[in-house]
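Q: For a teaching handout, I want to show students what a protein-ligand complex looks like in C-alpha cell form. Below are the inputs, and the small molecule is FE3-S4 cluster. Please produce the holo structure.
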Amino acid sequence: MKIIIDADACIGCGLCAQVAPDIYEMQQDKAVPIRSGMQDGRKEEAENAAEQCPVNAISVS
Ligand code: F3S
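A: Here is the structure, written as C-alpha cells, with FE3-S4 cluster included.
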C-alpha cells in the first residue's frame, strides 16, 4: 500500500489522524503516514480516512 498526502492541500484538520490513528499522524499541522508498518493490511481503513478528508489531500493505492 502506498499513501501519498499532498502537504500543500492538507489544511491540518486532523480528521485522518482521528479516524485512523495507527495510519496517520499530525506533524506540525500536516498529516503524514506513520512509517511503522502498522498500516500493512489496513488499506480499507486508510481509504476510509482518505475519503473523509475535506480537501481530498490523501491518495491511497
Ligand atoms: Fe489534512 Fe485531510 Fe488529514 S486536511 S489532516 S490530510 S483529513
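A: Two things your students might notice: The radius of gyration is 10 Å. Helices lie at 15-19, 43-52.
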